[in-house]
Each structure stands twice: as C-alpha cells, then as structure tokens.
Amino acid sequence: MKKMMTVMLLLAMGAAAPAAQAAGNIDCELRYNLSGWSAFYKTASGTGTITCDNGTSFPVTISAKGGGLTVGRTTITDGRGKFSGAYSVNDLLGTYAAAEVHASASRANDAQAMTKGDVSLALAGTGHGWSLGVGFGKFVIERR
What we know:
The relative contact order is 0.24. The protein has a single domain (25-143), classed as Beta Barrel (Lipocalin). Strands 1, 2, 3, 4 and 5 form a 5-stranded antiparallel beta sheet that branches. β3 and β4 (107-116) form a beta hairpin. By secondary structure, the protein is mainly beta. It contains 1 helix and 5 strands; from the N terminus they run αβββββ.
C-alpha cells in the first residue's frame, strides 16, 4: 500500500511540473540605482524594484562583487533590467554570473548581460563617474 501511494505521489508531481512550465514565462523588469568603486576589486550596492506582467511587484537589494583589470567609481541612477527565461518571481532572485567591459569619464553608461541557469538579465543604465577596465564577478538580487 505504501509503495502504491509513493508511486501515485511521484506520478502526480511529474504531471504537475509540466503544467507549471506550460503556463509560460513571466515578463519582468528591474528598475534600480547602483553605486560602487573598483581598483582591481570591484564592489557596488543599491536598491531596486522588480515588476512583472502578472501584477507582482517587490523591492530588492542589489550587490555586485568581482575583480579584474578595472579601476573607477560610478553611480547608476534609474537603471533598467529585463529578465528572460523565468517561470516564477523566485527564479529572479539569487546570484548571477557577470562579465563586463567598461570605459567612461564624467557621464557613466553601463550595459551588461548576465545569467543564472536558464534565467538571463540584461541591464542598462546611465549616471555619473569614471571607470576603465574589464571585470567579472557576481551580481546578487535579494528581497528587501
């Protein structure tokens, strides 16, 4: 009897998983402000809001850490990010792998793409500061 219940439970879970995937991707956007510095080691932090087409919206904190041949100090205001490949808002949170090439003086522009498994995030923003280099690291999004 226990074995039959276990088999039925596994079958039910397997049937439910494709239904969740069949519901399709959610369309979500990140609006953020981020500031940081780099001198071989790069660090930045900020806040933002994720808004999705299913009506979900929630505040987040952002941190970025990494390294490379990089130097500078920048502040990005009213940055925008576009997520792809997510099926739930929980897919959006976590650590993304990031790589970037940047150069700016006075007016900072930032654009980069990053990934976390099947979920991708493309960022773009403008602000002020100066920077030069090639960097890599992690970009972390957490609920505030």
